[in-house]
Amino acid sequence: xxxxSLRCDANISVRRRGAEKFGTKAEVKNLNSxxxxxxxxxxxxxxxxxxxxxxxxxxxxxxxxxxxxxRTEPMRSKEFAHDYRYFPEPDLLxxxxxxxxxxxxxxxxxxxxxxxxxxxxxxxxxxxxDAEVLASSRALADYFEDVVRAGAPAKPASxxxxxxLLRQLKDAGKxxxxxxxxxxxxxxxxxxxxxxxxxxxxxxxxFARMFETGKPAAEIIVAEGFAQVSDTGEIERWxxxxxxxxxxxxxxxxxxxxxxxxxxxxxxxxxSRGQANPQxxxxxxxxxxx
Length: 290
What we know:
Layout: E1 8-12, E2 26-31, H1 34-53, E3 61-66, E4 71-77, H2 99-108, H3 113-124, H4 128-134, H5 138-149, H6 154-172, H7 183-195, H8 200-213, H9 217-224, H10 232-245, H11 247-254, H12 260-271, H13 278-289
Parallel strand pairs: 2-3
Antiparallel strand pairs: 1-2, 3-4
């Protein structure tokens, strides 16, 4: 193909409906284009079916493709295996495998990827797609299960690994075994998001700092003031300040433009440096904007 030419042979055999084995094969030699290969295959299949349906017998032979006539034609017969130069390898000893040895090997084998994917879906309740990604390597699959064993719910663990951890590893040119964030550390960070101590947006910032420094989430949250603010008084103060600074958008919202609500939410989250409890922000804004 690299020289702009093609030579290939095609072996064709058919079988009757319900038969377990294919019948006698014929070999079509020296096909020099994909088009001729397709036509030769189609012709030879129909020819063999026709021979069998008319009560005839397929002869083991080599055939050539007649381009002008659009058919295969006999070249030479191949009646026996030795005509194809089939012969046993004299230097290979027979291998006899006992059932006990086979069972011993099977018991010692690690869990194979397909079985692992199915188990992840069954035991952890994640999607087949997530299971395929997480089971793409043994190291990644082990990391995921270690995070779950450390207490993280399976679905959030799957999401954080696939979205944040794999992205950070790719950017840093590292493998999963080189992750500066251990499974236990990731599980502890996920627990803080799930409990509401920090929100998901802040969690991404915390995780980035964990990856950079190797420090645990709790230490980073305290040191950098990332704890989620749920104090209703503080959140209401932010909300009132944002509303007062945006009278035009307030008028639009009260005139029926509900899409402006997202603007107010975004401004409050910016004022709180992303630390305000999103649900409390939504509830407070709805009350103040009514």
